[in-house]
Write a structure and sequence with these properties.
The chain has 386 residues and is α/β, with parallel strands linked by helices. The chain contains 13 helices and eleven strands. The protein folds into two domains: 239 residues, 3-Layer(aba) Sandwich (Aspartate Aminotransferase, domain 2); 125 residues, Aspartate Aminotransferase, domain 1, CATH 3.90.1150.10. Helix 3 packs across helix 7. Bound molecules: pyridoxal-5'-phosphate.
Protein backbone atom coordinates (compact mmCIF):
# COMPACT_ATOMS: atom_id res chain seq x y z
CA UNK A 1 0.00 0.00 0.00
CA UNK A 2 1.10 3.59 -0.59
CA UNK A 3 2.16 5.71 2.37
CA UNK A 4 -0.93 6.58 4.40
CA UNK A 5 -2.27 10.09 3.77
CA UNK A 6 -2.84 11.78 7.13
CA UNK A 7 -6.02 13.72 7.79
CA UNK A 8 -4.05 16.96 8.28
CA UNK A 9 -0.48 18.24 8.07
CA UNK A 10 0.93 21.73 8.67
CA UNK A 11 2.04 23.65 5.56
CA UNK A 12 5.47 24.89 6.65
CA UNK A 13 8.67 25.16 4.63
CA UNK A 14 12.08 26.77 4.40
CA UNK A 15 10.80 30.32 4.91
CA UNK A 16 9.26 29.38 8.29
CA UNK A 17 12.38 27.41 9.31
CA UNK A 18 14.65 30.33 8.43
CA UNK A 19 12.44 32.83 10.27
CA UNK A 20 12.36 30.69 13.42
CA UNK A 21 16.12 30.13 13.26
CA UNK A 22 16.75 33.86 12.95
CA UNK A 23 14.42 34.53 15.87
CA UNK A 24 16.34 32.12 18.08
CA UNK A 25 19.67 33.61 16.98
CA UNK A 26 18.43 37.09 17.89
CA UNK A 27 18.42 36.15 21.56
CA UNK A 28 14.72 36.97 22.11
CA UNK A 29 13.41 33.46 22.76
CA UNK A 30 10.36 34.55 24.74
CA UNK A 31 7.95 37.41 23.94
CA UNK A 32 9.63 40.39 22.26
CA UNK A 33 9.70 42.57 19.14
CA UNK A 34 8.58 39.86 16.68
CA UNK A 35 5.46 39.18 18.72
CA UNK A 36 4.65 42.90 18.67
CA UNK A 37 5.19 42.90 14.89
CA UNK A 38 3.02 39.80 14.45
CA UNK A 39 0.20 41.51 16.37
CA UNK A 40 0.49 44.65 14.24
CA UNK A 41 0.51 42.78 10.91
CA UNK A 42 -2.35 40.53 11.99
CA UNK A 43 -4.50 43.49 13.02
CA UNK A 44 -3.66 45.26 9.74
CA UNK A 45 -4.77 42.21 7.76
CA UNK A 46 -8.25 42.46 9.30
CA UNK A 47 -8.87 46.18 8.86
CA UNK A 48 -8.55 49.54 10.54
CA UNK A 49 -8.97 50.35 14.20
CA UNK A 50 -8.31 46.83 15.48
CA UNK A 51 -5.96 45.64 18.17
CA UNK A 52 -4.51 42.14 18.21
CA UNK A 53 -3.19 40.38 21.30
CA UNK A 54 -0.99 37.31 20.68
CA UNK A 55 -1.57 34.40 23.06
CA UNK A 56 -0.35 30.85 23.61
CA UNK A 57 -3.55 29.23 22.23
CA UNK A 58 -7.08 30.04 21.13
CA UNK A 59 -8.27 28.48 24.38
CA UNK A 60 -6.19 31.09 26.27
CA UNK A 61 -7.56 33.86 24.05
CA UNK A 62 -11.20 32.81 24.62
CA UNK A 63 -10.56 32.69 28.36
CA UNK A 64 -9.01 36.18 28.33
CA UNK A 65 -11.86 37.57 26.21
CA UNK A 66 -14.54 36.34 28.60
CA UNK A 67 -12.53 37.58 31.58
CA UNK A 68 -12.12 41.00 29.97
CA UNK A 69 -15.88 41.44 29.50
CA UNK A 70 -16.47 40.47 33.12
CA UNK A 71 -17.97 36.96 32.84
CA UNK A 72 -18.01 35.43 36.33
CA UNK A 73 -19.84 33.15 38.75
CA UNK A 74 -23.62 33.05 38.20
CA UNK A 75 -23.38 34.16 34.57
CA UNK A 76 -24.49 32.06 31.62
CA UNK A 77 -22.87 32.00 28.19
CA UNK A 78 -24.53 30.53 25.08
CA UNK A 79 -22.27 28.03 23.30
CA UNK A 80 -23.10 25.80 20.31
CA UNK A 81 -23.00 22.09 21.17
CA UNK A 82 -21.27 21.55 17.79
CA UNK A 83 -17.78 22.62 18.82
CA UNK A 84 -14.56 21.57 20.53
CA UNK A 85 -14.69 21.42 24.32
CA UNK A 86 -12.36 24.46 24.61
CA UNK A 87 -15.22 26.83 23.68
CA UNK A 88 -17.24 25.71 26.70
CA UNK A 89 -14.46 24.95 29.19
CA UNK A 90 -13.25 28.55 29.36
CA UNK A 91 -16.71 29.55 30.62
CA UNK A 92 -16.22 27.11 33.52
CA UNK A 93 -12.70 28.49 34.21
CA UNK A 94 -14.49 31.69 35.26
CA UNK A 95 -17.13 29.94 37.37
CA UNK A 96 -19.90 30.66 34.85
CA UNK A 97 -22.17 28.14 33.06
CA UNK A 98 -22.16 27.39 29.35
CA UNK A 99 -25.68 26.84 28.03
CA UNK A 100 -25.48 24.58 24.99
CA UNK A 101 -27.42 25.44 21.83
CA UNK A 102 -28.29 23.32 18.77
CA UNK A 103 -27.01 24.17 15.28
CA UNK A 104 -28.56 24.78 11.86
CA UNK A 105 -28.62 21.81 9.51
CA UNK A 106 -26.84 23.33 6.54
CA UNK A 107 -24.01 25.35 8.11
CA UNK A 108 -23.70 23.50 11.43
CA UNK A 109 -23.37 26.99 12.95
CA UNK A 110 -25.30 28.06 16.05
CA UNK A 111 -29.11 28.16 15.72
CA UNK A 112 -30.06 31.66 16.87
CA UNK A 113 -33.76 30.77 17.06
CA UNK A 114 -33.05 28.13 19.69
CA UNK A 115 -30.53 30.48 21.34
CA UNK A 116 -33.32 33.06 21.75
CA UNK A 117 -35.34 30.50 23.72
CA UNK A 118 -32.40 29.81 26.04
CA UNK A 119 -31.68 33.42 27.02
CA UNK A 120 -32.28 34.09 30.73
CA UNK A 121 -31.65 37.07 32.98
CA UNK A 122 -28.25 35.55 33.75
CA UNK A 123 -27.13 35.31 30.12
CA UNK A 124 -24.14 37.51 29.54
CA UNK A 125 -22.68 36.51 26.17
CA UNK A 126 -22.83 34.24 23.13
CA UNK A 127 -19.82 32.44 21.59
CA UNK A 128 -20.59 31.63 17.96
CA UNK A 129 -18.20 29.21 16.19
CA UNK A 130 -17.54 29.70 12.46
CA UNK A 131 -17.70 25.97 11.88
CA UNK A 132 -15.27 24.60 9.27
CA UNK A 133 -14.43 28.21 8.32
CA UNK A 134 -17.91 29.20 7.16
CA UNK A 135 -18.80 32.56 8.72
CA UNK A 136 -21.95 32.84 10.79
CA UNK A 137 -24.65 35.16 9.46
CA UNK A 138 -23.36 38.43 10.96
CA UNK A 139 -26.54 40.44 10.38
CA UNK A 140 -28.66 37.91 12.26
CA UNK A 141 -26.02 37.60 14.97
CA UNK A 142 -25.85 41.37 15.51
CA UNK A 143 -29.67 41.59 15.71
CA UNK A 144 -29.79 38.73 18.17
CA UNK A 145 -27.08 40.20 20.41
CA UNK A 146 -28.62 43.69 20.36
CA UNK A 147 -32.16 42.43 21.03
CA UNK A 148 -31.00 40.40 24.02
CA UNK A 149 -28.32 42.80 25.29
CA UNK A 150 -25.53 40.21 24.97
CA UNK A 151 -21.80 40.44 24.36
CA UNK A 152 -20.34 38.42 21.47
CA UNK A 153 -17.05 36.52 21.68
CA UNK A 154 -16.38 34.76 18.38
CA UNK A 155 -14.58 31.41 18.30
CA UNK A 156 -12.84 31.83 14.94
CA UNK A 157 -10.45 28.88 15.44
CA UNK A 158 -11.45 27.62 11.95
CA UNK A 159 -11.88 30.92 10.23
CA UNK A 160 -8.69 32.67 9.18
CA UNK A 161 -9.03 34.11 6.67
CA UNK A 162 -12.77 34.19 6.01
CA UNK A 163 -15.51 36.71 5.29
CA UNK A 164 -19.25 36.84 4.93
CA UNK A 165 -20.88 38.97 2.24
CA UNK A 166 -20.67 41.95 4.60
CA UNK A 167 -17.83 41.40 7.11
CA UNK A 168 -14.39 39.93 7.43
CA UNK A 169 -14.27 37.45 10.34
CA UNK A 170 -12.51 39.36 13.11
CA UNK A 171 -13.12 42.76 11.51
CA UNK A 172 -16.50 43.44 13.14
CA UNK A 173 -17.77 44.92 16.38
CA UNK A 174 -17.83 41.84 18.63
CA UNK A 175 -16.25 42.19 22.06
CA UNK A 176 -13.49 39.92 20.73
CA UNK A 177 -12.71 37.37 18.02
CA UNK A 178 -10.20 34.61 18.70
CA UNK A 179 -8.16 32.67 16.11
CA UNK A 180 -6.16 29.45 16.63
CA UNK A 181 -2.67 28.70 15.31
CA UNK A 182 -2.68 25.09 16.49
CA UNK A 183 -0.69 22.63 14.33
CA UNK A 184 -3.62 21.57 12.13
CA UNK A 185 -5.42 24.92 11.77
CA UNK A 186 -5.41 27.10 8.64
CA UNK A 187 -2.19 28.82 9.70
CA UNK A 188 0.06 27.64 12.49
CA UNK A 189 2.70 28.64 15.00
CA UNK A 190 2.80 25.11 16.48
CA UNK A 191 0.67 26.29 19.36
CA UNK A 192 -0.71 29.82 19.47
CA UNK A 193 -3.66 32.12 19.04
CA UNK A 194 -4.71 35.74 18.49
CA UNK A 195 -7.40 37.78 20.21
CA UNK A 196 -8.68 40.66 18.07
CA UNK A 197 -10.87 43.50 19.28
CA UNK A 198 -11.98 47.07 18.52
CA UNK A 199 -12.32 47.86 22.21
CA UNK A 200 -9.20 49.38 23.77
CA UNK A 201 -10.29 48.30 27.28
CA UNK A 202 -10.66 44.65 26.20
CA UNK A 203 -7.21 44.70 24.57
CA UNK A 204 -5.68 46.37 27.63
CA UNK A 205 -7.20 43.89 30.07
CA UNK A 206 -6.20 40.91 27.88
CA UNK A 207 -2.61 42.19 27.69
CA UNK A 208 -2.46 42.55 31.45
CA UNK A 209 -4.02 39.16 32.22
CA UNK A 210 -1.96 37.42 29.53
CA UNK A 211 1.15 38.04 31.65
CA UNK A 212 0.50 37.54 35.37
CA UNK A 213 -1.76 40.57 35.82
CA UNK A 214 1.20 42.89 35.46
CA UNK A 215 -0.06 46.26 34.32
CA UNK A 216 1.86 47.63 31.35
CA UNK A 217 0.52 51.12 31.99
CA UNK A 218 1.90 51.12 35.48
CA UNK A 219 5.14 49.57 34.21
CA UNK A 220 5.61 52.27 31.56
CA UNK A 221 4.83 55.00 34.05
CA UNK A 222 7.58 53.83 36.34
CA UNK A 223 9.95 53.20 33.49
CA UNK A 224 9.78 56.83 32.42
CA UNK A 225 10.86 57.86 35.90
CA UNK A 226 13.96 55.72 35.62
CA UNK A 227 13.08 52.52 37.52
CA UNK A 228 12.87 49.92 34.76
CA UNK A 229 12.84 47.08 37.30
CA UNK A 230 9.60 48.26 38.88
CA UNK A 231 6.20 46.85 37.93
CA UNK A 232 2.70 46.62 39.37
CA UNK A 233 0.58 43.51 39.81
CA UNK A 234 -3.08 44.51 39.53
CA UNK A 235 -4.72 41.04 39.35
CA UNK A 236 -3.87 37.32 39.63
CA UNK A 237 -3.26 36.89 35.90
CA UNK A 238 -2.24 33.97 33.71
CA UNK A 239 0.82 32.88 31.69
CA UNK A 240 -0.62 33.04 28.18
CA UNK A 241 2.05 34.91 26.16
CA UNK A 242 3.29 33.82 22.70
CA UNK A 243 7.05 33.52 22.07
CA UNK A 244 9.08 35.31 19.38
CA UNK A 245 10.13 32.09 17.56
CA UNK A 246 6.42 31.20 17.31
CA UNK A 247 5.59 34.74 16.14
CA UNK A 248 8.37 34.54 13.53
CA UNK A 249 6.65 31.47 12.12
CA UNK A 250 3.29 33.26 12.36
CA UNK A 251 4.56 36.26 10.35
CA UNK A 252 5.51 33.95 7.46
CA UNK A 253 2.25 31.99 7.70
CA UNK A 254 0.27 35.24 7.77
CA UNK A 255 1.87 36.36 4.48
CA UNK A 256 0.97 32.98 2.96
CA UNK A 257 -2.52 32.73 4.49
CA UNK A 258 -4.55 33.81 1.46
CA UNK A 259 -2.60 31.62 -0.97
CA UNK A 260 -3.03 28.66 1.40
CA UNK A 261 -6.77 29.45 1.56
CA UNK A 262 -6.98 29.55 -2.24
CA UNK A 263 -5.37 26.11 -2.38
CA UNK A 264 -7.95 24.71 0.08
CA UNK A 265 -10.72 26.42 -1.90
CA UNK A 266 -9.57 24.70 -5.09
CA UNK A 267 -9.39 21.31 -3.32
CA UNK A 268 -12.93 21.89 -2.06
CA UNK A 269 -14.13 22.75 -5.59
CA UNK A 270 -12.47 19.62 -7.00
CA UNK A 271 -14.06 17.43 -4.28
CA UNK A 272 -17.49 18.91 -4.85
CA UNK A 273 -17.22 18.33 -8.59
CA UNK A 274 -16.06 14.72 -8.10
CA UNK A 275 -18.55 13.80 -5.36
CA UNK A 276 -21.71 15.23 -6.89
CA UNK A 277 -24.14 12.40 -7.58
CA UNK A 278 -22.54 9.90 -5.17
CA UNK A 279 -25.36 10.23 -2.63
CA UNK A 280 -23.26 12.13 -0.10
CA UNK A 281 -24.48 15.44 1.29
CA UNK A 282 -21.74 17.96 0.41
CA UNK A 283 -20.76 21.19 2.18
CA UNK A 284 -22.04 24.46 0.73
CA UNK A 285 -20.86 28.04 1.07
CA UNK A 286 -22.50 31.43 1.38
CA UNK A 287 -22.78 33.49 -1.78
CA UNK A 288 -20.36 36.46 -1.86
CA UNK A 289 -18.33 35.28 1.11
CA UNK A 290 -14.93 33.70 1.55
CA UNK A 291 -14.96 30.30 3.23
CA UNK A 292 -11.73 29.44 5.06
CA UNK A 293 -12.20 25.74 4.15
CA UNK A 294 -10.51 24.54 7.32
CA UNK A 295 -12.69 21.42 7.04
CA UNK A 296 -14.50 19.66 4.20
CA UNK A 297 -17.32 17.78 5.91
CA UNK A 298 -19.45 15.29 3.95
CA UNK A 299 -22.52 13.55 5.35
CA UNK A 300 -23.52 9.93 4.78
CA UNK A 301 -27.09 8.60 4.83
CA UNK A 302 -26.82 7.17 8.33
CA UNK A 303 -24.40 6.09 11.05
CA UNK A 304 -23.78 2.56 9.71
CA UNK A 305 -22.81 3.95 6.30
CA UNK A 306 -20.65 6.63 7.91
CA UNK A 307 -18.73 4.13 10.04
CA UNK A 308 -18.26 1.83 7.01
CA UNK A 309 -17.10 4.85 4.96
CA UNK A 310 -14.46 5.80 7.55
CA UNK A 311 -13.09 2.24 7.77
CA UNK A 312 -13.10 1.85 3.99
CA UNK A 313 -11.08 5.04 3.57
CA UNK A 314 -8.75 4.01 6.38
CA UNK A 315 -8.13 0.64 4.68
CA UNK A 316 -7.09 2.65 1.61
CA UNK A 317 -4.70 4.74 3.68
CA UNK A 318 -6.83 7.90 3.72
CA UNK A 319 -7.08 9.60 7.11
CA UNK A 320 -10.38 11.18 8.17
CA UNK A 321 -11.83 12.72 11.29
CA UNK A 322 -15.22 13.57 12.80
CA UNK A 323 -16.02 17.18 13.72
CA UNK A 324 -17.46 17.22 16.24
CA UNK A 325 -18.66 14.84 18.89
CA UNK A 326 -21.28 17.32 20.14
CA UNK A 327 -20.61 18.55 23.66
CA UNK A 328 -24.01 17.40 24.95
CA UNK A 329 -22.88 13.80 24.30
CA UNK A 330 -19.67 14.20 26.35
CA UNK A 331 -20.01 12.91 29.94
CA UNK A 332 -18.95 16.09 31.72
CA UNK A 333 -21.21 18.46 29.76
CA UNK A 334 -24.12 16.01 29.57
CA UNK A 335 -24.17 15.53 33.34
CA UNK A 336 -23.53 19.17 34.14
CA UNK A 337 -26.36 20.44 31.93
CA UNK A 338 -28.68 17.43 32.42
CA UNK A 339 -28.99 17.24 28.63
CA UNK A 340 -30.56 14.51 26.50
CA UNK A 341 -29.98 13.98 22.76
CA UNK A 342 -33.53 15.24 22.12
CA UNK A 343 -32.55 18.69 23.37
CA UNK A 344 -30.38 19.04 20.23
CA UNK A 345 -32.23 17.36 17.37
CA UNK A 346 -29.98 18.56 14.55
CA UNK A 347 -26.62 17.96 16.27
CA UNK A 348 -27.67 14.53 17.62
CA UNK A 349 -28.74 13.41 14.14
CA UNK A 350 -25.89 14.95 12.13
CA UNK A 351 -23.23 13.58 14.49
CA UNK A 352 -24.00 10.10 13.12
CA UNK A 353 -23.55 11.23 9.51
CA UNK A 354 -20.46 13.46 9.33
CA UNK A 355 -16.94 12.72 8.08
CA UNK A 356 -14.15 15.27 7.58
CA UNK A 357 -11.92 14.55 4.57
CA UNK A 358 -8.28 15.73 4.24
CA UNK A 359 -8.15 19.37 3.00
CA UNK A 360 -4.79 20.95 3.86
CA UNK A 361 -2.90 23.35 1.63
CA UNK A 362 0.23 21.16 1.42
CA UNK A 363 -1.76 18.35 -0.30
CA UNK A 364 -0.49 17.52 -3.78
CA UNK A 365 -2.87 17.09 -6.74
CA UNK A 366 -2.01 13.39 -6.63
CA UNK A 367 -3.12 13.16 -3.01
CA UNK A 368 -6.37 14.97 -3.82
CA UNK A 369 -7.08 12.49 -6.62
CA UNK A 370 -6.24 9.62 -4.30
CA UNK A 371 -8.88 10.79 -1.80
CA UNK A 372 -11.39 11.13 -4.64
CA UNK A 373 -10.71 7.63 -5.91
CA UNK A 374 -10.99 6.14 -2.43
CA UNK A 375 -14.28 7.97 -1.78
CA UNK A 376 -15.69 6.80 -5.13
CA UNK A 377 -14.71 3.18 -4.46
CA UNK A 378 -16.02 3.10 -0.93
CA UNK A 379 -19.21 5.15 -0.98
CA UNK A 380 -22.06 3.38 -2.74
CA UNK A 381 -19.75 0.43 -3.50
CA UNK A 382 -18.34 -1.01 -0.32
CA UNK A 383 -20.79 0.96 1.80
CA UNK A 384 -24.21 1.03 0.13
CA UNK A 385 -26.10 4.15 1.05
CA UNK A 386 -29.58 2.60 1.04
C1 LIG B 1 -8.90 24.10 17.78
C2 LIG B 1 -10.11 24.73 18.37
C3 LIG B 1 -10.05 25.49 19.54
C4 LIG B 1 -8.83 25.56 20.41
O1 LIG B 1 -7.73 26.08 19.78
P1 LIG B 1 -6.29 25.98 20.53
O2 LIG B 1 -5.45 26.98 19.80
O3 LIG B 1 -5.81 24.57 20.35
O4 LIG B 1 -6.50 26.33 21.95
C5 LIG B 1 -11.19 26.15 19.96
N1 LIG B 1 -12.34 26.05 19.27
C6 LIG B 1 -12.45 25.31 18.15
C7 LIG B 1 -13.75 25.28 17.44
C8 LIG B 1 -11.34 24.61 17.67
O5 LIG B 1 -11.47 23.84 16.59
Amino acid sequence: MEQPLPFALPDVGDAEIEAVTNAIRSGWVSTGPLTRQFEEKFAEALGNGLEAVAVSSATAGLHLALEAIGVGPGDEVLVPTWTFTATAEVVRYLGAEPVLIDVEHESLNVDLDQAAQRVSDRTKAIMPVHFAGRPVDYRKLADFAATNGLEVVEDAAHAFPASSATDRVGGGDSAATVFSFYATKTMTTGEGGMLVTRRPEVARRARTMRLHGISRDAFDRYRSTGSPWRYEVVAPGYKYNLTDPASAMGLVQLRRAESMRLRRESISARYTEAFTGLGLELPTEQADGKHAWHLYVVRCADEATRDCFISGLSARGVGTSVHFIPLHLQPYWRERGGYTPDDFLVASREFGRVVSLPIFSAMTDGQVERVIQAVQEVHGGLCPSE
